[in-house]
Amino acid sequence: MSHRRDGIPRAAIAEPRRSCAGPEGQQGLETVYGGARRSLRFDVVDSTEVPPRCQPRAQPRTSARSVFDESLVLRVSPAEGEQTSALSLTYAEEVARALRNALMCHAVDPPPAALSGHQSDGRPLERPHAAFLALPDLRANTSSSRIAGVAIVLPRAIDPEERQAILLAAARWERGGLRLVLGRLGALQLSRVDEPTADPLARHFLDPHRWSGPSRRWATVTPLALHHNPGDLTAQSPAQAARAARRAAEIVARGCAHIGLPPPTQVRVMRRSTFPGIPTAPEFMPFPRKPSRPGSNKFQRVCVHAELEFAEKVEGPVLLGAGRYWGVGLCGVRDG
Known about the structure:
By secondary structure, the chain is an alpha+beta fold. The protein has 6 helices and 14 strands. The protein has 2 domains: 11-208, no CATH class; 215-333, no CATH class.
């Protein structure tokens, strides 16, 4: 997952309710953006001071880009004697929701809309906002369906003040221990990746090309949740199943526009991911896990794995489908 190309200045944070001051009045937060480590320092200033805005540098655009951009990535610290956590990737949604809740608990009140995903009146935000992911171990010959890391992915057009507020919430959480509580599933202990080059696992899942490309070919690591029901993909009638598969491919293709990408030239939908060791799409269902409330539009979605090919290279991160903010629909590069 790529990092922003603009410089990251020291940010003056206006915060009247909580203090993030360390021993010298500053709080440092080490974050990993696409494998490149950066130290973000936040100065505590008087609450009447307006935080400066970060101005992105103009960059030549060589390919279509998704609406998502930089990512804050944390490694799951496995139990003693183990190489990965014991939590299956099929719990990606539960991890994503817990990750959002952890940041919300450490954010200012009210939290930034780019973090909560809601407007001030409680309605869903109509612009892109933060997405929350579980990351698997995809190393060759050791692919595992276990969760190896987590990520908070920020939108490319995020307001600089909202971005600062989200990173400051992460800094507070870090001071509290970075423990991700998952209810009946227990908890995951997270940690920063201080030296990704010295950690083979972290170096692999932080590979910027894996998550950001650019590339013409992408495939799902976690299955995507379709915006509409395509029909019976497992019908006994071959013709009926084929119609449902074509309908599913059309839904996937149209969903690319939701994240700013052009229509793909080819889409294949399937039960299994083309990445080895990844659970089948039905194992991630139902999505969402929680039953819908009366009057809610959160009905259960059909999940499929997919492989997409574009006419030209596109730049990610590529998060597709109705669950792209909640751990499903994460795509990785399949060429090269």
